[in-house]
Amino acid sequence: MPSNLVASRDFVNLHFPRHSNNGSKRSRASSTHSPAARLSIIAEDGDVPPMPPKAHHRPFHRRWNLGDPPSFSFETSPPKYSVWDTTGPKGEKLADVRNNKHIARRGGWIRMCLIALLTIGIVVALVVGLVFGLRKKNSNHEAPAWPQSPESDTSTSNSTTTFPAGSYTFTTYLDTVQTDCSSQAQDWSCFPYHTFAESPSQAMANFTWVITESEDGFSISSTENPFSIVFDNTMMMLLDPGTDDERYQFNATLDKVTVPSIGVNCFFNDTILEGNLYTKKPQNYPSSTTTSSAATAPSSASGDDFQPWPYAVDIRQSIGGGQSVPECFRIQANQKGDRIVDGISPRPASSMCSCEYKNFDS
């Protein structure tokens, strides 16, 4: 055989291997590239072959088409995350704030600092104003401190009582008397019936009154007395506070009864009683040389321990003329009898009857 034929045959046998006649499989390269080897033959009139079961060794997520599993394992914790993390992608701080278009422009940081300082200043001012406002409000609602002195501490029966509350004896003298409201001058009289000008010692008169404190302020009441002066819980008003004439003033309306003669009583209805109790003005009566059997009410009548009022005081009873001023009656068995009209005629309202008491020089 020629040598060229032998070489050709060896080339064919090397690159194109033969197959056996009994239908053995082709080479690996041929079976890989042949579509017929991968596709099954489907008969047109035959039954569809059953789908082969899925391999049990396949991964669970591929078996049920669940996609790839997450990249994190339950054995390790997820990466840390914090809402306070302000680090930028390149490690810079406050990147969003710095890149804000309003702050990034010229002067943005300065404006931001000024706004922050202004806000802090407003908050501080509001807090300070609120604190001082509350202090001032509380101080305005505090009870006023009434003037006190060493004498006033001993002028009350209870050491915890606020001045001028207490039981006091007001030592005065009868200064002046007016009788013009009645056509009969003897109908109006003032106890103890002697003025200071007539007799300094016989003009002395003591008033025993009780001053009490309540939520509305201070009130004053009379006790048993020979002056026919009866009033109860009359409110007092503080006048001219902080001055030398600082005083408590009160006014009361009462019915004054006089005895111009035996068996006759005259009634001066709606007589005005006015009193001024000074808290700083000194008194100068009675003096050390004054001696008297002063007209006074017995302190045992009310059971209180009356202390001397340490300051000046003036007291005045007054009434103007008019119809039924006065009304005089005969008294029989302590009862009103016939009214006396003879010799009594009304006087003008400007005609006054008064009794004035005080314990200082004008």
| Sheet having the most strands | 12 strands, mixed
Number of strands: 12
Helix/strand order: HHHHHHHHEEEEEEEEEEEE
Summed up, the helix count is 8
User: How much helix is in the residues?
Assistant: 10-25%
Helix- and strand-based class?
A: alpha+beta
Strand content: 25-35%
Radius of gyration: 60 Å
What characteristic shape results from the CA principal axes? elongated
**Span between termini:** 177 Å
Mean pLDDT comes to 76
For this structure, the quaternary state is single chain
Report low-confidence residues grouped into runs of 5 or more. Answer: 19-33, 142-158, 296-303
Explain how this protein is built.
The protein has 362 residues and is of the alpha+beta class. 20% of the residues lie in helices and 26% in strands. The chain contains 8 helices and 12 strands. It has helices at residues 3-15, 28-33, 35-38, 60-63, 95-98, 101-104, 108-140, 150-153, and strands spanning 166-179, 204-214, 217-222, 234-235, 237-239, 247-261, 264-278, 307-308, 313-320, 327-332, 335-340, 352-358.
Topology:
Elements: H1 3-15, H2 28-33, H3 35-38, H4 60-63, H5 95-98, H6 101-104, H7 108-140, H8 150-153, E1 166-179, E2 204-214, E3 217-222, E4 234-235, E5 237-239, E6 247-261, E7 264-278, E8 307-308, E9 313-320, E10 327-332, E11 335-340, E12 352-358
Parallel strand pairs: 1-8
Antiparallel strand pairs: 1-2, 1-12, 2-3, 3-4, 5-6, 6-7, 7-9, 7-10, 9-12, 10-11
